[in-house]
Write a structure and sequence with these properties.
With 338 residues, the chain is α/β, with parallel strands linked by helices. Helix content is 50%, strand content 16%. α5 packs across α11, α9 packs antiparallel against α10 and α10 packs across α11.
């Protein structure tokens, strides 16, 4: 029996080689909504086959076009309208997440309470935060203060009418597609709200430095692309983030190295001192949010270091653009056992 809330919400999950993570994801949503759609982006681990066996509507993306989470969500929404054209709300979920019990009801309550809410999201927690320092970073990033926010992330519930009015995601945005989408939703006059309720548990399964580097590189690419699209608006979206990468990962090291011969190395010492000040500033931010000192230190260290792989992604975006290259996804996760 589908709960009453499930008659009002369709669920779209997306994935690419998520393996066991996808199984956990689908087990958490089956029976929660009358329509559950799974969109697969070229998996080779049997994900689409498992989703079909679980009773999902399955969409397998044409590999002849570049994959992206944005494209997958758009195709999932399209299938929802084919199966349930009158459904008023759609919940998007990634294949590495498990939906929390009671979230659909909590999201609908928020929509009923706030007529100006276009999209809502709840708290996300990491499934195994202590398995690796990288999972720990994810868990810290997920901690958001309830209220009005700029972007929901890729896991959210939205009014069907709002998604259609915003014309969905831009399929060519390969990272931070949720930020780009939310900019347009807010420009239509809708609010995006963080609800004080559990929405999902995320399984990062990140255990290697190379995975963290790739993810940070992907974020640099995202800052560059979304700033190119929306940096000229009133809020200058991602412009400051992009500037920090240029300054801290390129201009400052270049200046310190260039002056090193004439300053007898003092410029390099000064650069390290500035990085230490940045570490202290970010550490203080975590401390003011009530994080333990160790968590604040880990977050600060990787924030400072992360500007270097982000610079790689930023430069890669501009290199691709200058040569008219297609923007393809930057992957940082491998499949779990299918």
């Amino acid at each position: 029996m589908i709960p009453t809330s499930g008659q009002k919400v369709a669920i779209v999950t997306i994935g690419r080689n998520e393996g066991d993570r996808l199984k956990s994801c689908l087990h958490s949503v089956i029976g929660k909504a009358a329509t559950v759609v799974y969109v697969d982006s070229g998996s080779v681990d049997g994900s689409a086959r498992f989703a079909a066996s679980a009773g999902c509507q399955v969409v397998e993306l044409d590999p002849g076009l570049p994959f992206s989470a944005a494209r997958a969500r758009n195709e999932g929404f399209k299938r929802v309208l084919e199966c349930a054209p009158d459904v008023p709300f759609v919940q998007f979920l990634d294949g590495d997440c498990e939906l929390a019990e009671g979230w659909l009801e909590a999201g609908l309550v928020e929509f009923a309470r706030r007529a100006d809410a276009g999209a809502v999201c709840g708290h996300v927690s990491e499934l195994h935060p202590r398995v690796s320092v990288y999972n720990r970073l994810f868990d810290l990033e997920w901690r958001q203060v309830p209220g009005e926010i700029r972007s929901s992330g890729g896991r959210f519930m939205i009014r069907t009418a709002v998604f259609r009015a915003a014309r969905g995601f831009r399929s060519d945005v390969i990272a931070a597609e949720d930020d780009e989408f939310c900019v347009r939703v807010r420009r239509l006059g809708w609010k995006i709200l963080q609800v004080d309720a559990k929405m999902a548990r995320h399984d990062a399964a990140m255990t290697r430095f190379s995975q963290w580097w790739q993810r940070s590189r992907r974020m640099g690419h995202a800052y560059a692309q979304v700033a190119a699209l929306h940096g000229g608006g009133e809020e200058r979206y991602f412009v400051r983030d992009r500037a920090r990468i240029w300054i801290w990962a390129l201009l400052l090291p270049a200046l310190a190295l260039g002056l090193a011969p004439v300053t007898h190395g003092l410029s390099l010492a000064a650069m390290l001192g500035l990085y230490a000040l940045q570490f202290a500033r970010v550490w203080g931010h975590g401390h003011r949010r009530g994080w333990p000192a160790g968590d604040s230190a880990v977050y600060a260290l990787f924030t400072v270091m992360g500007r270097f792989p982000a610079l790689q992604g930023l430069l890669e975006y501009h290199w691709r653009q200058s040569r008219g290259r297609a923007l393809t996804i930057i992957e940082y996760k491998g499949s779990t056992r299918a």
